[in-house]
Amino acid sequence: MSGNWNIYPFKSILMEICLGQIVICIPLQSKNFKTISTMNRKLWIALGVIALVIFWGVGVRNGLATSDQEVKGSWANVQSAYQRRADLIPNLVKTVQGVANFEKSTLTAVIEARASATQMKLDAKDLSPENMQKYQAAQSSLGGALSRLMVVAENYPQLKATENFSELQAQLEGTENRIKEERDRFNESVKSYNSKVVTFPNNLIASFSGFTEKGYFEAEAGSDKAPEVNFEEKK
């Protein structure tokens, strides 16, 4: 019996110690909980900001990629229009060559300018301002030579009797109009693209993603209207 009575005080002491620890630990745990909650809130805020920045960056890059594809599509149409003009020139030269005493120097200038223009290949990924200037110079040279040929052709009334003249006239006029329209569309797409590339903070994403400013067609004298292709005799 006496042994049992000696155990009870020991149990009481243990219970008191445990209860004391619980009482002490509860406020400590509550304080730690608040600290952890504050840290979690800051962490979630930081993660939210990072997520927003990532989503914004992805959106900007997708927008740049879309604009880049629009420029490439417009450029393909420009090249198609210029190629159409180049394809018509051999028939024109052949038709004019059938006329006696036609100025050979004028024909030679057209042939050489066409060869130079068709050799000037420019990929859509290389549309830098410098490359665009070279491309435009080559096409302008061909356009100038073709215009001079038209002027000289007007001095030969017998050309009117040539079967292909009316058809060539209509096709060349339509081609020149199309070239102007496609150039205008291309310039608009480049303007939209470049504005995204150079504007802050989009330019940060553009630079990181490899999107660079592109060149466009400069205005030329008389570019407000398509060149007239007229085989009719001057009055």
From TrEMBL:
It is found in: Membrane. SUPFAM superfamilies: LemA-like. It is a single-pass membrane protein. It comes from the Bacteria. Residues 158-185 form a coiled coil. GO terms for cellular component: membrane. Keywords: Coiled coil, Membrane, Transmembrane, Transmembrane helix. Pfam families: LemA. The chain crosses the membrane at residues 42-59. Belongs to the LemA family. This is Protein LemA. The lineage of its organism: Bacteria, Pseudomonadati, Bacteroidota, Cytophagia, Cytophagales.
